Amino acid sequence: MAKVSQFALVSLAICLSSLLGLAVAAEEKFIVEGKVYCDTCRVEFETKISQPIKGALVNLECRNRTDIRTITLTKDVVTDKAGAYKIAVEGDHEEEICDVSLVKSPRADCNDPTEAWRKSRVVLTTKDGVDGPQRYANNLGFKRKQALPECVQVLKEIGYYEVEEEEGHSHSP
Ligand SMILES: *[C@@H]1O[C@H](CO)[C@@H](O)[C@H](O)[C@H]1NC(C)=O
């Protein structure tokens, strides 16, 4: 009799834990990842001398797709020494529009959000064909107050000035 009830208890425990497992699996979980840089050349794109920013504040915000004024999720995160951040998000957000954006830079010499890379859209649903929990946001960047002197050389190497001339701009970083 004792054996029987022990068996019953064990099966009950197994049954319960697999039920719990199912409940967890049904709830989507995403990891939003990205990096924050200092745009040391003030060109609004990443160069080889862009610098990762540690301690930058980044915000993830989701809004209701049909009622854009309603914020459904907001999370702040601070970048690590590689300028990287990870934000864990629960649930499926198919009916929402989610963006990560720059909030604050810890560097007084590099705290001006760039136009082009201050914000990045992230898709937090598996219903649009993207599988897996990892969601990569585009890198975000603050502009340095003044371009570094090395920028001239770095930008020359990638043909930046030729393009500028073709486009009829006269621009020096
Ligand atoms: C979004 O807003 C609409 C209209 O107010 C509402 O019916 C819907 O449930 C909301 N969706 C989410 C995901 O909050």
TrEMBL record:
Residues 1-25 form the signal peptide. One of its GO terms (cellular component) is extracellular space. Keywords: Disulfide bond, Signal. The keyword Disulfide bond applies. It comes from the Eukaryota. Belongs to the Ole e I family. This is Anther-specific protein LAT52-like. It comes from Hibiscus trionum (Flower of an hour).
